[in-house]
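Section handout, structural biology tutorial.
Before the tutorial, make sure you can parse a SMILES string by hand: atoms, branches in parentheses, ring closures as digits. In the record below the ligand is zinc ion, and the chain has 342 residues. In the tutorial you will relate the predicted structure tokens back to the input. Do not try to memorize them.
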Amino acid sequence: MNRDEDIDIAELMRSRPHLFILGAGATKATIPNGDKYGRQSPVMENFMHEIGIDGLLEGVKLKTKSKNIEAIYSELSTKPEYASVVSKIEDGIVAHYRQMQIPDAPTLYDYLILSLRHKDCIATFNWDPLLIQAYNRVNKITSDLPQMLFLHSSVEVGVCEDCYHYEPFRNRYCSICGQPLSSPKLLYPVKHKDYSQDIFIKDSWDAFSGYLERACIVTIWGYSAPKSDSEAKKMMLKAFSSTFRKLDQIEVIDIAEEEKLYKTWSSFAKKTNYHLNIYTSLMDTFIGEFPRRSVEGYVKRNIEGWWGGSTLTLKECKSFDELAHLFAPLLANESNDNFCVI
Ligand SMILES: [Zn+2]
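Predicted structure of the complex:
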């Protein structure tokens, strides 16, 4: 390969997105002590008890002995006689998540959003409103922020049915045409999920596939790809495998056992020549070392053979002023179209 071809490959790779895929573990890590008012993000196991709606099951005859919402919801949703119980469970879930408020100080979600740019994407399986709440505040530091996709919808997404504009549900009215916003139905935990049930979810999955095809780095944070999401995993692998991946990178952020994580993601890692790194913290990943320059840093080191290190790395900040100050040199360069690693 001659030098010109090297430069072309590097240039091409730098233009590619960094894709983050978020699961329940990401929200858990973002609010380790609960939300602003100490409310915990519930886990699937014992979910109904944790959000205080287990009383809805009084007098309901269930085959499953499991306390897992997936097993309970899956069974009830096939029984027409329990339609009203199902609808009350759905209302309880939405009400619980609508109350959640991100803590006042910067969180990992704030760092994550600010560390990516417009060409990048965060796709989340989570219903909670915290990612959108974080987006709305770091948006005051810069408006060059990643795309967000809600693969199971979210309680904070509002859609205008007149002009198909998306914005936070709490704005209540469409900022383009003034019609009241509606909230797309959440994709509930049944075994056979219908990803085309609603235009919002279908559009999100189509866009997600596009990012999986093009991303240079894919980071999977706190998403365990449970059995009930086997269809989702199949769709993800199909999109990921559709192009040449040997130079690309996969990162996994999770506190589960490494061996288990390797097993879960080996079919993806194989495509990248096993470029798979496992971390327990967001701060240790590529965006931790190269905030807003993750793909640039990756290419500089792995394609162009650079041995240096970034001088501006992600660190915990006590306030949004401190966070804005940390990112200021990068944002100043960006205003001159300079996206080099510093
Ligand atoms: Zn509208």
